[in-house]
Amino acid sequence: MNNNKNPSQKLSVWSYFVPPPPPLLEQPWREVSVEYQSNLEFVRSYQPENGQVQHLRILLYGPVGHGKSSFINSVDTVLKGRPSVLVQTNAIFGNSFSTQYKTFKFLKSPGATYSFVFNDIMGLEEDFDDGVSVNDLKLALRGHVREDYTFNPEQELKEGDDGYNSDPTLEDKVHVLVGVVAADAVSRLPDQMVKKIRKVRLAASALRIPQMAIITRVDEACPEVKKDTSNIYKSNYLKEKVERFHQLLGIPENCIFLLKNYSHEIESNDKVNAAIVCALKQMLHYGDDYLNNL
Prior knowledge:
It contains nine helices and eight strands. By secondary structure, the chain is of the alpha/beta class. The longest helix has 23 residues, at 270-292.
């Protein structure tokens, strides 16, 4: 009896084995750390080139609970150099914790604020009659939603309502639109959610408003990043998430940024800050381009 196995059989078995890609790349595919201090200096000294506005307006939108409000708090933490809670957030998933249209300014010194603002908005939800409506988001883009307006999923805002701004200025309009999605949810966004996001994107494109996206909770999605936040742009897994998000919604990959929001930290951390400031700097550049090209 011949117990020797055919060598060709061994080769055929091993030919099907493809080693998994390494969890981390040797070099980051986007550099953020070395530019951190210069990026932060740019953000701190930023002024809109267009003299018609005092503040560049950035609107955050996305599914409920993916980190819109936490990102605003994270930006404030970076600017203050210590943990900050500018926006109340909810650690328990459910309906949107943000229900009003709010403008958030960042204190630079007593009586002075930075020259950019964020608008938080009620989150998108899968069901048609839940969360902020796509039409209300379109109105916000054009500056038609008044400060403190409370969104009602069952009744869209319309002209003549108390919350409707019939004569928006350039300052009221959105200058940059930023989608916010959690890294661990990119591959499982429901079809209805994707359709809603696409409708918002089309409306912004028609208005020539620049668009970006930030992918949050990277530390929860990738163990290597949880160990060391500076590994964000070395992670193969997170790179795949950026590519997937690009394919899903058509946002160019160089307009999609990875970051970790502050959550449990009690001290400011330059490794966390670097990715946040990198994304923020690009928002300001895109907004300035929009204002200058009007």
